[in-house]
Request: fold
Amino acid sequence: MNGEAVNNVQQHRRLRANGAGRWILMALALLVAPLIFNSGAALSVLSLMVIAIVFALSYNMLFGQTGLLSFGHAVYYGMGAYLTMHALRYLTATGIPFPVELLPLIGGVGGLFFGYVLGVISTRRAGITFAMISLGVGVLMESLAVILRHWFGGDGGLSGDPTAGTHLFGLTLTDRLQIYYLMAVWCAVCIAAMYYFTTTPLGHMANAVRDNPERVEFMGFSPYQVRVHVHTLAGFFAGVAGGMLALTTGIVTPDALGFVNSGQVLMMAYIGGAGIFYGPILGAVVVTYMQVLLSNYTQAWQLYIGLFFVLMLLYVPDGIAYLIKIHIPAARHRQLLRLIPGYVMVGIPGAVFLLGLVLIVQMAYDLHSVHIFLNQSFTFLGVEIDDRSPWSWLLAVAATGGAFWACRPGTKRVRAAWDEVFRQIKTAEGVEEEEPA
Reply:
């Protein structure tokens, strides 16, 4: 019994150290990132990343922690952005000494209000009913953004000047580095607040409602009330993210509350790993980076993000964070070397498969682009390819299909290696538990 207590204490200390290490690593990443990527374009991308992190975590309060699949979460993000922009324009016109740096709170209050009002209506049922209601709300608000031109500014949206008005700590927000660090501070505060939410009784009840709402009701609690409260808080943080967007870009358009944004935040949470708190953080960084990087090379970038999402659904349904999580004990027990041969067997044909898939997409896109009318040649990785020849298509499809099937022996090898690694880890942990006794 004494040995078991000692082992529990050691495990608790290890978990606390790992948690503190994650927070320190996150803070260092936010501080150091603009020192490494210091160009104007890079700073803008970093600002969009930290905004996407807050947005994705707010969505995960619904999806990952409460089990509510929403197709309209961008409504609260967009309304927060619009309210922040209206507040900025009002402060600029009247000269009221309210700090511009605190305006995301206005967006948060707007998201809080709409999150509560729409949450009361939409969270009476979970599952597909809630998903369809959220979809309808998203379509409705996107339509209103076009109709109510006085409030939403029409297709051109609303613009304002974040450099005008009262500022804190001598900031001017004329420098992109200042804007990034302001967004980073808001991001850190929101991450800490949303993590604290997971440790509160309401956060635990949200998990219980996600897993077994009938048992929660049997215990005397209302799953509906829990959903409403979580929906309201998620709307608040989404509104804060929208306010951050308004200050970063200086313009808000109806796209901010559109269906595309709702789909993107869903992909961020799912790709990163909705079951782990830091999963949406990873998903927001990956999706934002892919959007910026791919848009510089191809106009079919949205298609690639969609394909990436589908592949993640099929082969890594628990997200990137889960992949990292399962490798940590393997690294701690020095078992990673057992996995390398299988990864190599999958990685080489997998890379060929991805290249073949990209080649097929780019050839298909080139056939419907202006290049075909200008009689310009199609090049892929510096090689000129006749995309109008059936032989080019046949070779591309054959190489892609062959590479896909060549991955199968490697996947079997990876599964066998992981079975052995888990067996070794369980054996080692069993020995460690018996040693103190």
User: Anything to note?
Assistant: The chain has three domains: 1-34, 37-300, 333-434. Residues 333-434 form one domain. The two ends are 8 Å apart (CA to CA).
